[in-house]
Structure formats: C-alpha cells, structure tokens
Amino acid sequence: MTHLIVVGSGVAGLTCALEAAAAGFEVTLLAKARLTESNTRYAQGGVAVALADVDSPASHLADTLAAGAGLGDPDTAGILCAEGPTAIHELIGRGVQFDRDGDDLAHGLEAAHSHPRILHAGGDATGAGIAYALVDRVRAAAVTILEETTVVDLVVDGERVVGVRLLDGRDLRADEVVLATGGAGQLFPHTTNPEVATADGIAMALRAGAAVADLEFYQFHPTALVATDSFLVSEAVRGEGAVLLDAAGRRFMTDVHPDAELAPRDVVARGIAACMADQPGVPVTLDATALGPDFLARRFPTIDAACRARGWDWSTTPVPVAPAAHYFMGGVRTDAWGRTSVAGLWAVGEVACNGLHGANRLASNSLLEGAVYGGRVVEALLARPAAEPRDPQWAEPVVVDLADTEEAAEFTRADLQELMWDAVGLSRDAAGLAEARRVLRSWRAPAVSDVKSAEDANLLLVARAMVDAGAARVESRGGHFRTDAPDTDPAQALHSVLVPARAMVPA
Fold this sequence. Notes:
- Belongs to the FAD-dependent oxidoreductase 2 family. NadB subfamily.
- InterPro entries: FAD-dep_OxRdtase_2_FAD-bd, FAD/NAD-bd_sf, Fum_R/Succ_DH_flav-like_C_sf, Fum_Rdtase/Succ_DH_flav-like_C, NadB, Succ_DH/fumarate_Rdtase_cat_sf.
- There is one protein chain.
- The chain has helices spanning 11-22, 39-42, 57-67, 74-93, 126-140, 200-207, 235-239, 265-278, 293-299, 301-309, 366-383, 413-424, 430-441, 451-472; strands at 3-7, 26-30, 47-48, 100-101, 104-105, 118-119, 143-146, 151-157, 160-166, 171-173, 176-179, 212-213, 218-225, 243-245, 284-287, 319-328, 331-333, 345-347, 352-353, 398-400, 497-500.
- By secondary structure, the chain is α/β, with parallel strands linked by helices.
- Among the domains are: 3-182 and 329-383, FAD/NAD(P)-binding domain, CATH 3.50.50; 226-324, Alpha-Beta Complex (Flavocytochrome C3, Chain A, domain 1).
- The strands form six sheets. The protein has a five-stranded parallel sheet with strand order 7-2-1-11-18. A five-stranded mixed sheet has the order 19-17-12-21-20, covered by helices on one side.
- The longest helix has 22 residues, at 451-472.
- The two termini are 28 Å apart.
C-alpha cells in the first residue's frame, strides 16, 4: 500500500488526502496548527467557476490568461477551467453549502471576470464553509491526522524524498510527500494571511534541492482594513458597487484605469498606494454606503461584523483601507500533475507554481485550484503519466546560492518583514533589491529549536530567493512592478525558474 504524507490542511491538502484515502492509500495528514487554520479558512470572495448558461470554461480561461499578464500557462489554466465544474460538484457532495438563488447556485461578479461566475458560501465566508466541510470529511475518513505538528524539513535519501522531519526530531517515512503548506504572507508586516503562512513548503523544497518558479510575483490585495490585523475586505464588495475615495471624498480610480475599482488587483493596489503617498496621514476609504445596511449585513456578514467590532458602521461611513500581502503566484515548480523536480515530492495549492496564475492571479481562482489540482496529484499517483516535455515558456533554471555566509548575524522577523515591504512590496527597483540582498545575506538562519525559529529560518531563505528573482526580472509585469523598468518587455515573457546551488537539508 502506498503511504502518502500530506503537509498542510487547506483546500488543496484536504482534497488530496480525501482522494488518496478513497483510492486506498495509507494517508497521513500533518498540520502545523489546527486543521482549520489555513489560508482557505480566511478566504472571503468565493470560487470562480463557469457554470452559468451564459458562461463557459473558454471564457473563464480567457479571463485567467488576461489577468496573468502574458505568463498564464494555457495548459494548466485550461485544466483548471475545464475541470472546475466537476470539482465544484464534488465539493457540494462533500458538504459545502454554496449560497443559492432559489434552487440555483448564486453567481457574483468580481474584477476582471467577463461574467458573474463567483460562488459564495455564507455570503463572505466561502473559505470557512469549504474548510469546515472538508475537515469534517477528513476526520471521518481513513486518514491519520497529526495536528499542531511542525514539519521542519524533508527527508532525502539519495535524490528522492522519502519522508519528513518533525520539530521533535522524529522522521516520518513515506512513499510520497505532498506539500500543501499554503502561502508566505508573513514575509511582510501587512498581510491578509494567518500567522501560519510562513513560506514553510517553499523553504523545505529549496533545502531539498527542488526548483522554484516565479517568486518575483506576489499579489497585494488592495483593500485590507487600516489600523487592524489587515482584515480583508473582499473584492466582491467592489463588485457589488463600492468605490474608493481619496482625502477629498473623490473617486480617484476612474483616473487610473478604465475599469476603475474593478481593474486588476495590482493596478488597484498601486493606485491606492499612490493616492496614500499624495495625502500623507490620511487613508483611502472604501465607500459601500450606497449598498445599504440590510444588504451589507446579508451579503457580507463577516465583514459587517468585523467593521462593527472595530467601531465602524460601514453602512453610513466609508472605512479606511490599504493594500496588504495576499497571494503568492510563485512557488515550488510543478507540472500539470503536481510533480516537482525532486522524485517523491509533490506540491499543490498556493505553495506550488504550475504557471496557471501567470504574473497575476485572477480573483477567486485559488480555491478552485486547490480543489482541482489536489485531486490531480492522486490521479497521477495512480496512473503515473509520463513526464511532460519542457515548455519553452519556462526559462532555463538559474542556479543561486541561498545558504548562510560564515559572518552572518542574527535578525528579527519584524526587521525582515519591514525590509521586504520596502524593497519587494508593491514597487521595486534595482537599488532597493540590491540593498535587500546585501542585508539578507548579512543575516543567518536561527538554530531551529521551536516553531518560531523554524518559521524564521524559512522566511529568511525564501526572502533571499524572492529578492534574487525580483532583481533578475528587469521589467514590470503583473504583480512585479519596477519603478526603474515600468514597461513590460515581450522578450521577458518567460516563467523564471530558480534552483539552489546545493541541497541544504541537514543530516
């Protein structure tokens, strides 16, 4: 019997574990915190899928590729859009209660979508609806669950991953390991991600010698509540008609992009940042007052409660918002089945990069990605499809030495986060990236003794890789905007691929 270890408990990891258990695999599911603590749980906006009669997978694919700014992979994005309807029906079969309009599923509209195709659950609690339903199914399945269990590294034997190493020093062996560890929002001081999103999977893959891709592309959500824990205000609020206002109460996004508040996320985020720079000390506000208190409470109950808990009645007064780190388009390089460049290692969900998001993720595609590709890993484990030929859209790997130097000193997470926000945030330039690289190389990873030190070591390693990737792409594209190279260069329409100069898994 094949033993599969799945690290991570978002929609991708839970789906993979359920499919593997149903296929007769021995499955061990590891979660750093509780099973429900993942980026999936906090996702508000919904799931994009072409189910309506006026819509089609081809239209969904066209929107996905357009958002990807010339780097969306047509094959992997096409799989997402074509297999999305089946994945949604499987989620429904597993207990996810999507909102309905009578007997039919309700469809909402979000930025850069040609049709209303966004499914929601609980109004603005879609991720929570998915997470809790899948966790219930996993707990009832033949899956060994280890919660509050920190994986610090992959176990490598020769050139193959054969298990994982835990914080307590134990090694858990398996035939195959799937990374489903989610994102890296804790690289930045302002993020919509939960505290567990510390780039763990990417760092572990790098230390095992795996290739990573597109690390320069990070998506910043335009509208997180200011002076809070960066609580997300869903893009769906703008989809319903809310507008952004400057200090004078003027709707400024109409001057930035023809689609105004429904422009791509990177455009809206930079528009807000520019407006904030022009009005120091005065926040940009999101005005949803025209939607009315009853609609806001019914359609967005989670956001409504969050605003009121913070002392704001957003039905009568615009609320202050600002961009925050939200989603990593880059990650561990995989093919269309989730295979990485290292035997025995798979990756799925936000930790992975198969190219479908390109340089900028289309809103509400991430939950669907986890549902679709979480199942495809198991399909590949069963069918063992042949390796795919190299796609010329993917650049030849660049070898980078990411290891500590002997003279490196200690650092704090707060210092790292501020450095990354300044140098690799919404805007970058050569000088800032070079200085960030120098500083990051002057720091050393802490000795791993507890969860935080393990996370800090992971954040430092991925920060180094991300800065190197950002310096190498001398153009602006999607989530990567360089003030010293503001144009998009057609010659650079290639996915970047980076490999570590040497594996760094401790003996």
